[in-house]
Amino acid sequence: MGKAWVKARRHDRFYRAAKRQSYRSRAAIKLSQIGRRYSLFREGDVVVDLGAAPGGWSQVAGECVGPKGRVIAVDQVTLSPLEGVEVVRGDFTRSEIQARVFELLRHPADVVISDLSPKLTGHRSVDVARSFELAEAGLSFAVRALRPGGHFLVKVFQGDGYREFLRRVSEHFEHVKGVKPSSSTPSSPEIYVLAQGRL
């Protein structure tokens, strides 16, 4: 990353807010904003965080569900321990990793969240397509893991396939919409698909 990018980030109020609150990532502020606005979490909820590293979303989820709730974080990279967060290391798209998550869950989850992003190639159409591949995998997992009435939140890049993805998500949830929190960089193609009320 260039010096200009690092300097700009230091002046970013959401980056500073994340640092002040000891969050592991700026993205934690995005989840916090979405969670508050749309009542994503309740105290005592069981949450699965797909692609959790570095752990900012798991931190926010843990604060929201409290000591009676649970957060299971899944990622291929090693996640530094987080108090109250159970970690499964591995690729969540693999059947054996999903089996470990379901073993830990024991009962259906209340919320599944994913801030996963593909490795960017710089080719917009390729990056968009890859973001939807990850989102589809997240949807497939969420449909299996969630209780009736449960919620799903996943990041995608806007582009070809967005409307079709919303349509597929709406087959499984009562309410589906794209949301972009104020902490999301305006120029970024990212948007979060919020699906509430698992059918």
Q: Layout of helices and strands, plus pairs?
A:
Elements: H1 3-10, H2 13-20, H3 27-38, E1 46-50, H4 56-65, E2 70-75, E3 85-89, H5 95-105, E4 109-114, H6 124-145, E5 146-157, H7 162-170, E6 173-179, E7 190-198
Parallel strand pairs: 1-2, 1-4, 2-3, 4-5
Antiparallel strand pairs: 5-7, 6-7
Helix pairs in contact: 3-4
Structural summary, described in words:
With 199 residues, the protein is of the alpha/beta class. The protein has one domain: Rossmann fold (3-Layer(aba) Sandwich). The protein contains 7 helices and 7 strands, in the order αααβαββαβαβαββ. It has a 7-stranded mixed beta sheet with strand order 3-2-1-4-5-7-6, with helices on both faces. β1, α4 and β2 form a beta-alpha-beta unit. The protein is globular and about 40 Å long. It starts with a helix and ends with a strand. About 4% of the residues have low confidence.
Mean pLDDT: 89
- Please identify the top-level CATH class: Alpha Beta
Q: Would you count the extended β strands for me?
A: 7
Determine the fraction of residues in helical runs and give it as a percent range: 40-55%
Question: Briefly, what is this?
Answer:
The chain is α/β, with parallel strands linked by helices. The chain has helices at residues 3-10, 13-20, 27-38, 56-65, 95-105, 124-145, 162-170; strands at 46-50, 70-75, 85-89, 109-114, 146-157, 173-179, 190-198.
